[in-house]
Amino acid sequence: METGRGWAGRQRQERRNARQRILEVASGLLEDHPWHELRLEDVMAAAGLTRTAFYRHFDDRQALLMAMLDQVNAGASEAGTTWKQGTGDAVAELRAGLAELAGAMRRHGRLMQAVADSAAHDPEARAAHDEMIESFSRVTAARIRADVATGQSAVRAPDEVSTALVLMNERLLLAAYGRPPYPADDTVVETMVEVWVATIYGREALDRAEPVAGAGAQRST
Question: Staple 59 to which of 11, 63, 104, 127, CB 3.0 to 4.6 Å?
Fold first, then answer.
């Protein structure tokens, strides 16, 4: 016979499972529908749950969106960790980090597009978006300052340059992965590498770098 503690534990697990199911279904539906067209009725029907059950887990659609963002933020912020820490060849590590970021955006670009769209009119989404940009900019600036100190970079305004690079990445990646059709990953990565390496390490470092195999853009040397 199940004890009261066992029953309570099972209920908590069922609630966690239901919440995760809603998050997964909403993410899946974003692959085919823009956020503004995604109805709670469709999410809950696909999840096999009632609309009433939704409000046991989320206050509204925006709360659902922010919960989805929380799930992917950790993985996205890990992209480029090796370059940020600066343990080896700077250009090779930067290229690898940008490739990781492109991969994360291919997986989650529709969600990031939904957040960007919502940020235009929702204060919570705008705050989450701004904090994400600021977080990427801070760690980028810290790496650039370290490279300036060791003579690898001649950037004169690390904070401002970092913000410009991060904002450029956001627009480029949303244009690539926010909605289908999606371009070849190597073309996206090579575009980011072109701008980031030339900006931080100079044209000579860019010309020495190996392009992504099959990249559409070709550089003259």
Answer: 63
